[in-house]
Amino acid sequence: MCSVFRTFPLLLILSCLSLASSNNLRVCEDPNNLPYSNAQGHGYEIELAQLTGNALGRNVQFVWVAQRGDFLRKSLIAGKCDVMLSVPSGMDELAVTRPYYRSSYAFVMRKDRHLDIRSFDDPRLKHLRIGVQILQNEGGSATPAADALIHRQLANNIVWYRIFPNFIRSNPAAALVEGVEAGDIDVAVAWGPLAGYCARTSAIALDVVPVSPQLEQSVPLAFNISMGVRPGDTKLCSALNGVITRRQAEIHKILIKYGIPAASRKS
Fold first, then answer.
1. Positions of CATH 3.40.190.10 in the chain
2. Predicted TM-score (pTM) of this structure
3. For 72-91, what is each residue's pLDDT tens digit?
4. 223 class by beta-carbon count within 10 Å (0-12 exposed, 13-18 middle, 19+ buried)
5. Cα separation, 67 vs 88, whole angstroms
6. Whether CATH 3.40.190.10 fits 103-220
């Protein structure tokens, strides 16, 4: 016969362990994807996660997940972590917070070239080598920026930078901007956070100019960015919204520190 007096201490221990576990804020992060994060503890998402954990009174636990393939289903949706930072505000798969910043694709050029490209409609692009990223190795999809160039019959000017086969190197996405630095391409069209961070850390002076237009054939090139949690986790989503509201000035300082260019907000 099972005694309640033998069972109760075990239940108490399990309850305490559960409470301790719930005090952790498990954040999914990529171990090799600056300016967002790396396993060495660098990146603006690392600092943002620490700020958020402190504001909530919870210990931050990083869950390292390479963000490629079906990483979302295998990490956040599977319950291995509680929150992902820097997700598009319109992401249907997750419950998302209010936006905490907005950025756009940007042209990246060597300052000593004095190109000052500001629009996809600049006629000089017809004579320039334009670097853009492709998202997959086989049958991959192009970024919205690449689609804007292709729409203008500039496909032959594009130099493709494939990210996914190159994860063995540190910060593989930076190869696109490194192509500008080395002169392999004349201009890159990069997602704003990558463009701004690489320009800030480059030994060569670079210009970073938000693309224009920022809406191409009904496809946006500027995005509101939020935090994402599992669908139905309204309690955490509400708590994160509170942090974004109360700590917006501190969040903004972190973004500036990493050179993240801001885009104008929608009306």
1. 4-101+224-257, 103-220
2. 0.85
3. 888 999 999 999 999 999 99
4. buried
5. 14
6. yes
